[in-house]
């Protein structure tokens, strides 16, 4: 996600680019001892541009620092001719290599739930109609096959991350009340809430090989920002989870800002709630300043303009404490977002469950790694400047023969935060209440308190502040984890974010991909080895070292910037999707956003797809046989999928096939 959602592109700052870990925005008491020690020690000296190249030398891919432990994977076949960057600012299509086809498959406004009306490009649809249609801003997604015909029949589950001004034909309406407060029409906010969430769509390949969306279908379903969901795990029922509407702290309405995702071995979908902080307001500035549940995550102090003042139309989003109301009104409502939401797509009657054992964060995704003996771990990053990477390790093991045993596997376990050492090793530090740094004296009252304030817990234990961690992918052959670190212009500028080996470039505009291997490839390990897979950016001119300009990268092959979506297909090809601000001069060479394919052994990168101007490419899934792929074009900045220059742009799932019916990428 990058767009300012309910304002025009030119006006606003990138919503998820906001650095809320900036020292000026944080009480000193919250800056961790370990981060302070980091600054006092050697690393602080490196927080300058001049010092960066010396540090970089120690971690450049191919420098042999770690004895190359990451290349024992089979080499996947990559056989297509790359597409060029798309430099035309009016570029309004999706381009794929010769021999492939890309066609729009599922767009914002398309009917989902039985009884839905078609999308109205002119007058628009009302909120009740939107509740039955596809939401906006398609993001993470997954194809769940039916066992009897896995490559021909399945359920496509698609996140709808947020909303654009295009939701309303004339844009959002904002007026002022007698006191000069900004207010919104209720029905507009209801429509915005209905355009969030998730779509579940039954899909099938017909006898001629064409994919279709089934409508009506008993499986088709929408979840929105108002769908009732159960809260489970250690924070369920905690005082900090109670509101005037839910005195038990166990049921919440809706899910917000669903970005990347995860899948469990037992066939459920995991929603990751990302920038939920952008929907709430606390207008009591003194309370905001002392309430870490609010300020440490960046909830607005005062009216919330991000999504145009939902709090004026729906009191649930006004988190200002109300001492005269039960449980302070909705002061705790923001505590009920930022979790992992487990959804069973095959049971349309099932209630989604927010699993609090994962901890509360601005969560980009939730990627599972599975050991053959059933041990599991789930990786997540927080896509904000200078935030951390985490893993959740369930206490129990996955048992394929006992589905009931897996039902609540995600309610008990341990969350760890990653620490990256300069020597290419790393450790996972457990965020467990009562351990040093996380005691009552340290300001943590219980494990629920640790989980609700996971960022503060990670600060206390010295989690490494990263360059905006986005998606995590796990190599199916080696179990190595890969993470995209999309960019971070504060790196080396903010004293809390000095350059380091894992985040080696100051004012990092282009991002990097880092990979790690758990000790003994054990998902439960607390030690790992890591290295940088590549630094994104332009290639240096011939004869010059990439170190001469910190905008240069180390890509072997086709260049790109700002890696975000990341996925291994079943044959071990690594698919990389980008999210940079095309039109910004620093990205002039990159054209529009794109998807590329990398070989994890040779690190060769080839550009497979370019998207319409102004879009982000995100979300990728396919059939088990690899002959069908779906990707998402999010928030195109131009008429798409219609190229008529008039129709409002629509986020769209795109279907990709190979003309000869072969495996995508070969
Ligand atoms: Fe929603 Fe961090 O991308
Ligand atoms: Ca992004
Ligand atoms: Ca993302």
Strand line-up in the sheet with most strands: 17-18-20-21-22-27-26-25-24
The share of residues in helices is under 10%
Shape: globular
The Rg value, from CA coordinates, equals 23 Å
Report the count of strand segments. 35
- Largest sheet geometry: 9 strands, antiparallel
Mean pLDDT: 90
**Beta-strand percentage?**
25-35%
Q: Which ligands are bound?
A: MU-OXO-diiron, calcium ion
Distance between the ends = 30 Å
* Coarse structural class: mainly beta
The unreliable regions are 2-67
Number of helical elements: 9
What would you say this structure looks like, in words?
With 666 residues, the protein is mainly β. It is 8% helix and 27% strand. It is built from 9 helices and 35 strands. Strands 17-18-20-21-22-27-26-25-24 form a 9-stranded antiparallel β-sheet, with no helix packed on it. A 6-stranded mixed β-sheet has the order 10-9-16-15-12-11, with no helix packed on it. Strands 2, 3, 6, 7 and 8 form a 5-stranded antiparallel β-sheet that branches. β31 and β32 (604-610) form a beta hairpin. The chain is globular, with a radius of gyration of 23 Å. The two termini are 30 Å apart. Residues 1, 259-260, 364, 470, 564, 579, 618 line the site of one calcium ion.
Describe the structure using short key phrases.
666 residues; 35 strands; 9 helices; mainly beta; binds calcium ion; 9-stranded antiparallel beta sheet; 6-stranded mixed beta sheet; binds MU-OXO-diiron
What does this entry show, briefly?
By secondary structure, this protein is mainly beta.
């Amino acid at each position: 996600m990058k767009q300012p959602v309910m304002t025009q592109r030119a006006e606003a700052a990138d919503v998820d680019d906001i650095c809320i870990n900036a020292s000026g925005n944080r009480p000193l008491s919250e800056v961790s001892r370990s981060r302070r020690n980091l600054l006092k020690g050697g690393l602080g000296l490196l927080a300058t541009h001049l010092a960066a190249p010396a540090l970089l030398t120690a971690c450049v891919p191919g420098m042999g620092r770690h004895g190359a432990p990451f290349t024992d994977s089979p080499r996947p076949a990559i056989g297509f001719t790359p597409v060029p960057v798309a430099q035309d600012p009016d570029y309004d299509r999706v381009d794929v290599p010769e021999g492939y086809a890309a066609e729009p498959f599922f767009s914002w406004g398309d009917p989902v739930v039985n009884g839905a009306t078609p999308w109205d490009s002119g007058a628009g649809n009302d909120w009740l109609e939107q509740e039955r249609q596809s939401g906006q801003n398609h993001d993470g997604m997954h194809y769940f096959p039916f066992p009897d015909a896995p490559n021909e029949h399945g359920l496509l589950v698609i996140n709808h991350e947020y909303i654009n001004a295009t939701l309303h034909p004339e844009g959002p309406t904002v007026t002022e009340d007698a006191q000069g407060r900004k207010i919104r029409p209720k029905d507009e906010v209801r429509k915005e809430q209905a355009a969030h969430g998730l779509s579940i769509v039954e899909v099938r390949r017909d006898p001629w090989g064409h994919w279709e969306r089934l409508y009506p279908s008993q499986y088709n379903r929408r979840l929105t920002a108002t769908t009732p969901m159960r809260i489970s795990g250690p924070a369920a029922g905690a005082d900090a989870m109670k509101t005037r509407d839910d005195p038990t702290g166990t049921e919440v309405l809706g899910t917000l800002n669903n970005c990347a995702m995860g899948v469990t071995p037992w066939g459920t979908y995991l929603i990751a709630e990302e920038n939920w902080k952008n929907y709430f307001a606390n207008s009591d500035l003194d309370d905001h300043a002392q309430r870490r549940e609010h300020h440490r995550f960046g909830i607005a102090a005062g009216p919330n303009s991000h999504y145009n003042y939902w709090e004026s139309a729906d009191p649930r989003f006004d988190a200002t404490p109300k001492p005269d109301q039960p449980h302070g009104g909705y002061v705790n409502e923001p505590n009920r977002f930022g979790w992992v939401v487990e959804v069973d797509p095959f049971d349309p009657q099932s209630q989604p469950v927010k699993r609090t054992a994962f901890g509360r964060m601005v969560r980009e995704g939730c990627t599972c790694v599975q050991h053959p003996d059933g041990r599991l771990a789930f990786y997540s990053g927080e896509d904000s400047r200078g935030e951390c990477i985490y893993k959740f390790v369930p206490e129990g093991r996955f048992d394929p023969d006992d589905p009931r045993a897996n039902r609540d596997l995600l309610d008990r376990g341990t969350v760890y935060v990653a620490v990256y050492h300069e020597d290419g090793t790393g450790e996972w530090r457990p965020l467990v209440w009562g351990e040093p740094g996380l005691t009552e004296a340290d300001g943590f009252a219980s494990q629920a308190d640790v989980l609700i304030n996971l960022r503060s817990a990670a600060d206390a234990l010295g989690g490494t502040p990263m360059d905006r961690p986005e998606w995590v992918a796990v190599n199916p052959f080696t179990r190595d984890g890969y993470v995209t670190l999309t960019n971070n212009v504060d790196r080396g500028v903010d004293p809390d974010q000095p350059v380091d080996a894992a985040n080696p470039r100051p004012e990092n505009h282009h991002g990097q991909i880092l990979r790690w291997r758990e000790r003994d490839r054990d998902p439960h390990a607390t030690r790992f080895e890591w290295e940088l897979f590549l630094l994104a950016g332009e290639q240096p001119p011939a004869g010059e070292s990439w170190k001469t300009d910190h905008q240069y990268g180390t890509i072997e092959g086709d260049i790109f910037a700002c890696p975000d979506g990341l996925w291994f297909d079943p044959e071990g090809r690594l698919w990389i999707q980008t999210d940079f601000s095309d039109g910004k001069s620093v990205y002039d060479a990159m054209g529009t956003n794109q998807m590329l394919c990398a070989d994890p052994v040779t690190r060769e990168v080839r550009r497979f797809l370019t998207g319409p101007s102004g879009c982000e490419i995100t979300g990728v899934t396919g059939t088990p046989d690899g002959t069908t792929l779906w990707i998402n074009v999010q928030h195109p900045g131009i008429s798409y999928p219609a190229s008529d220059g008039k129709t409002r742009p629509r986020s769209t799932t795109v279907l990709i096939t190979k003309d000869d019916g072969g495996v995508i990428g070969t």
